[in-house]
C-alpha cells in the first residue's frame, strides 16, 4: 500500500470471485458472488460468454451430475445456470425451484425472452425439473430457439429447443434479477459500473467532506483520476470515479467496483473507464 495514502477499511459484505477452469487454466469471473442474493450484476453477453466455458456440444463438454462440481459449480442444469449468472456456487448452488422464486428471478412471457434469460420447468422431482439458458430465436416465427443447457446423460449442450412454446407446457420463462442489458460504451459520455456495497461520495477525490453515497448496484460514471488509495493491504484501489449524486458532481473510490484486480477500473461489459 502506498506510503502516506489515506486508507479506508471496509467490509466486503460476502463479496467473492469464482474461478472457472478452461483448457487447464483458471479463468476468473469478476463479480461472481458467493452470497446468492447479493450476486453481482451480469450482462447478457457475459452470461452467454460464461456458458461457453463449459464447452457446450463439444468433446470437452462437462459431464452431467447432480452430486459433482466443476470449477466450483454443481454440474446439473441449475448449477450451470447459476454459474452463468455468477450466483452462489458449490453443491448448494440454487436449484430449479430456487431459480424461479422471487429471490432470484421474475416470470416473463416467452415472447419477451432475451439472451441470458432462463426457461425452467420447476415441477416434479429432481430428475424431472430442468432449466435452459435462452440464446436467440431460431426462426422469424419464434417457433424454436437456441439454448445452452446441462443435459442429463450428456452434459453441456447447445441446441435448438421449443420448451415452453407448446400450449400447456410446464416450461416457463424467467428473467434473473441480476441479469442486465449490455450498455453501449461511453454513450452520452457515461460508462456503466456496478458497486458491491454503498460507496461514499465526496466533493472531490481529495476532499473528505462526504456529500452522499451510491448504493450497491448499477450506476454511471464519466471518467477516472488518481487520488488517495482506498482498501486493505490485500485489496485496494488508487483510482476515483467522477459521477453525480443528487444532480451534483461527486467522486467515489473505484475500490467499490466488483472485483477486477487492484488498481483496475473496469465498467460493465469489461469496458475500461477513460481518464478525466
- Please name the CATH architecture of the largest domain: Alpha-Beta Complex
What is the number of domains? 2
Task: Give the C-alpha Rg.
Answer: 20 Å
Largest sheet: 6 strands, antiparallel
The CATH homologous superfamily of the largest domain is named endopeptidase domain like (from Nostoc punctiforme)
List keywords for this structure.
disordered N terminus; 19 strands; endopeptidase fold (from Nostoc punctiforme); 6-stranded antiparallel beta sheet; 3-stranded antiparallel beta sheet; mainly beta; 276 residues; 3 helices; elongated; SH3 type barrels
In brief, what are we looking at here?
With 276 residues, this protein is mostly beta strands.
Task: Tell me what the structure shows.
- The protein has 276 residues and is mostly beta strands.
- It folds into 2 domains: 18-180, endopeptidase fold (from Nostoc punctiforme); 187-270, SH3 type barrels (Roll), CATH 2.30.30.
- Helix content is 8%, strand content 37%.
- The protein is built from 3 helices and 19 strands.
- The chain has helices at 44-52, 77-85, 96-99, and strands at 18-22, 25-29, 42-43, 69-70, 73-74, 105-108, 118-121, 130-137, 145-151, 155-161, 172-176, 179-180, 191-195, 199-204, 207-214, 217-221, 223-231, 236-245, 248-253.
- The strands form 7 sheets. A 6-stranded antiparallel β-sheet has the order 6-11-7-8-9-10, with helices on one face. A 3-stranded antiparallel β-sheet has the order 17-18-19, with no helix packed on it.
- Helix 1 (44-52) packs across helix 2 (77-85).
- The longest helix is centred in the first third of the chain and has 9 residues, at 44-52.
- The radius of gyration is 20 Å and the shape is elongated.
- The two termini are 24 Å apart.
- Residues 1-37 have low confidence and may be disordered.
Amino acid at each position: 500500500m502506498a506510503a502516506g495514502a489515506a486508507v479506508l477499511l471496509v467490509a466486503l459484505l460476502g463479496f467473492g470471485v469464482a474461478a472457472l477452469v478452461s483448457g487447464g487454466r483458471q479463468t476468473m469471473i469478476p463479480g461472481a458472488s458467493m452470497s446468492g442474493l447479493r450476486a453481482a450484476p451480469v450482462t447478457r453477453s457475459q452470461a452467454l460468454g460464461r456458458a461457453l466455458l463449459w464447452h457446450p456440444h463439444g468433446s470437452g463438454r462437462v459431464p452431467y451430475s447432480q452430486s459433482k462440481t466443476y470449477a466450483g459449480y454443481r454440474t446439473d442444469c441449475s448449477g450451470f445456470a447459476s454459474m452463468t449468472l455468477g450466483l452462489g456456487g458449490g453443491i448448494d448452488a440454487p436449484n430449479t425451484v430456487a431459480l424461479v422464486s422471487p429471490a432470484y428471478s421474475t416470470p416473463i412471457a416467452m415472447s419477451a425472452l432475451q439472451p441470458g434469460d432462463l426457461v425452467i420447468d420447476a415441477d416434479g422431482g429432481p430428475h424431472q425439473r430442468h432449466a435452459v439458458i435462452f440464446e436467440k430465436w431460431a426462426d422469424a416465427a419464434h417457433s424454436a430457439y437456441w439454448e445452452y443447457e446441462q443435459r442429463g446423460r450428456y452434459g453441456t449442450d447447445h441446441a435448438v429447443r421449443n420448451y415452453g412454446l407448446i400450449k400447456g407446457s410446464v416450461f416457463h420463462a424467467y428473467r434473473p434479477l441480476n441479469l442486465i442489458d449490455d450498455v453501449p460504451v461511453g454513450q452520452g459520455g457515461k460508462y456503466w459500473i456496478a458497486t458491491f456495497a454503498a460507496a461514499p461520495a465526496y466533493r472531490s477525490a481529495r476532499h473528505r467532506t462526504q456529500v452522499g453515497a451510491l448504493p450497491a448496484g448499477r450506476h454511471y460514471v464519466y471518467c477516472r483520476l488518481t487520488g488517495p488509495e482506498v482498501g486493505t493491504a490485500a485489496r485496494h484501489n488508487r483510482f476515483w470515479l467522477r459521477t453525480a449524486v443528487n444532480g451534483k458532481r461527486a467522486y467515489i473510490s473505484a475500490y467499490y467496483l466488483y472485483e477486477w484486480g487492484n488498481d483496475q477500473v473496469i465498467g460493465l461489459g469489461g469496458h475500461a473507464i477513460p481518464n478525466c
